[in-house]
Amino acid sequence: MQSSKWHLQTFQDSFVFIFILLTCMHTQEEATNKAKKDRENLGVELYGIQQDLAKQQMILEKHQDEHADLNQDRTQAEDNLREMRQMYREKQTGLGNERKQGKHAWRLL
Question: Three-state secondary structure along the chain?
């Protein structure tokens, strides 16, 4: 009878061990499934962020192009202004010389 009690106890211990092992495996499987789902959700979120980043990058490049165009226009306008000022100075100098010559001609008469 002792032997049969020992076998029964060993069977019960084995059953408890298997139950604990199955419970641990189930818990581990749930954790793995949750981790997979979390990873998938993060991938979807990352994809959305990457799409938004690409859109923002395109907007930035557009603004940089516009800024470069405006800067080029400003430089051209400054060059035109510089040329106009030079032409104005030359005209002023020419008119000043003509006036001096005109006054001198009147004095000679």
Answer: CHHHHHHHHHHHHHHHHHHHHHHHHHHHHHHHHHHHHHHHHHHHHHHHHHHHHHHHHHHHHHHHHHHHHHHHHHHHHHHHHHHHHHHHHHHHHHHHHHHHHHHHHHHHC
Q: What are phi and psi of 91, to 5 degrees?
A: -65, -45
Dist CA 89 CA 95 (whole Å): 10
Go through the chain and tell me how many residues it has. Answer: 109
pLDDT tens string 25-84: 999 999 999 999 999 999 999 999 999 999 999 999 999 999 999 999 999 999 999 999
Distance CA 52, CA 61 (A): 14
Question: How far is residue 46's CA from residue 70's CA, in Å, rounded to a whole number?
Answer: 36
| Of 100 and 94, more confident | 94
